[in-house]
Design a protein that fits this description.
fatty acid elongase activity, 13 strands, alpha+beta, transferase, 469 residues, EC 2.3.1.-, 39% helix, 15 helices, 9-stranded mixed β-sheet, transmembrane
């Protein structure tokens, strides 16, 4: 009997399978659904965890400290701007949110300023090597164990590359993977985090070194077109180095674990693409144009990124409220305002890119955050200025120096920049971080912060709308 049943199965295999997978019955569908769920869980659990072992921010020497008025004095020597433009920049600086102790390149302080390629290399090397030296001292990692190097720098693009400089300086091994990301704007550092996250899934048991310097002098505009003068005042010398690992043995010594990365891009829209645009003015002087659409573009880019991030981190109650609000507005069931999810129910600390004071103001006003939520970024802008991709690391350093990071806390870094691009990284603290790290750039002065910057007016009314042709 067993033999005849086997013969029937062999003779009519398709009919037998159809009987087993009778789609009119809920059982096979439930079985397939459970297979998919368990397969997803299995694959997710198998993905390698990514740890942030530690990071370091570069603090330039006091000889590079530059007050706002000193910057204007030096710019008169370095630039070709007329008195009207100089006065306009003075007003911008007065309302910028920057303090009196930010840093400029050492060669800008000389008479006359030396803007040769040699000096530009010296600037970026001092930042990169200063940050990496501090990071290696903190972690004690053997440089031969570093398998991936990624360097992000918006403007400076030299040969050999900045990543090559790192390999040469620290004599990294011959098979190290290197990537040099340029022209990616202020979101490049967090985009590199997402890129590294993927690389660490296919390269086991390795360390990845991320370095984010910026070349300040390359960004300074020496002409008189107002829409280009805006880029002159916020950018300052700074940089950060970050060490990531997928080694399970690093769990106990790492500070944070990477939970999510989300990247969005709105360059398909012309006004986003053109909102920060490098070009020459009518007399041939190169600079970066900031259009009147920048604030709106930045807010829209951040909102797009937040909508993608929300389902990954928000509790069900917040997701339900948001969806209900969306359907009510979409189908015009009632006249209600858009619901802004309360991310503070899932995130203990938020560290937005400093950008400029108006951008931080819009971030706070339109996205449901309060003064304390953006304190670290405002103080970062005040003390160190806009250090481009590194700014989110200076802000996190502030939170650490204040002793606010506790084990189990969720941290959210969000950065945005030209393109227009926006990136988020969500971390979970694996330990309580004490504020006693002597290499923290805030260590010697954290007791002086926060300072009151609410009296500083914005400069948006000074801006003359411009449109790209």
């Amino acid at each position: 009997m067993l033999g005849s049943r086997s013969t029937m199965m062999l003779e009519n295999p398709h009919e037998h399978i159809n009987k087993l997978l009778n789609l009119n019955s809920p059982a096979p569908l439930l079985f397939l659904f459970l297979i998919c769920i368990f397969s997803y869980i299995f694959i997710t659990k198998r993905s390698r965890k990514v740890f942030l072992v530690d990071f370091a921010c570069y603090k330039p020497p006091d000889t590079q400290m530059c007050s706002k008025e000193k910057f204007i004095d030096r710019f008169k020597i370095y630039g070709n701007s007329n008195e009207t433009s100089i006065e306009f920049m003075r007003k911008l600086l007065g309302r910028s949110g920057l303090g009196e102790k930010t840093y400029m390149p050492s060669y800008l302080m000389r008479d006359p300023p030396d803007v040769s390629l040699v000096e530009k290399r010296n600037e970026v090397e001092s930042v990169m090597f200063g940050a990496v030296d501090s990071l290696l001292e903190k972690t004690g990692v053997n440089t031969q164990d570093i398998g991936i190097v990624i360097v992000t720098c918006t403007i400076l693009n030299v040969v050999p590359s900045l990543a090559d400089m790192i390999v040469n300086r620290y004599k990294l091994r011959e098979n190290v993977l290197i990537y040099n990301l340029t022209s990616m704007g202020c979101s490049a550092g967090l985009r590199a985090i997402g890129f590294t996250q993927k690389l660490l899934q296919v390269h086991p048991n390795t360390y990845a070194l991320l370095v984010s310097p910026e070349n300040t002098m390359q960004m300074i505009y020496k002409g008189n077109e107002r829409s280009k003068l805006f880029m002159n005042f916020p950018l300052r010398v700074g940089g950060a180095a970050v060490l990531l690992s997928n080694r399970p043995s690093d769990h106990d010594k790492a500070k944070y674990q990477l939970i999510h990365t989300v990247h969005t891009h709105t360059a398909s829209l012309d006004r986003s693409y053109q909102s920060i645009y490098e070009e020459e003015d009518p007399v041939g002087i190169g600079g970066v144009t900031i259009t009147k659409d920048l604030l709106a573009v930045a807010v829209e880019a951040v909102e797009t990124n937040i909508h993608a991030l929300g389902p990954l981190v928000l509790p069900i109650s917040e997701i339900t409220r948001y969806l209900a609000n969306y359907f009510i507005r979409h189908f015009h069931l009632a006249d209600v305002k858009p619901y802004v999810p309360n991310f503070k129910k899932a995130i203990e600390h938020v560290f937005p890119h400093v950008g400029t004071k108006p951008v931080l103001d819009e971030f706070e006003k339109n996205l449901g955050f309060n003064e304390s939520d953006v304190e670290a970024s405002r103080m970062n802008l005040y003390r160190f200025g806009n250090t481009c991709s590194a700014s989110v690391w200076y802000a996190l350093s502030y939170g650490e120096a204040k002793g606010r990071i506790k084990k189990g806390d969720n941290l959210w870094q969000i950065a945005f920049g030209s393109g227009f691009k926006c990136s988020s990284a969500v971390w979970r603290a694996l330990k309580t971080v004490n504020g006693d790290d002597k290499r923290n750039p805030w260590k010697d002065e954290i007791k002086d912060f926060p300072v009151d910057v609410r009296h500083i007016q914005t400069y948006s009314e000074l801006f003359e709308p411009t449109k790209k042709k």
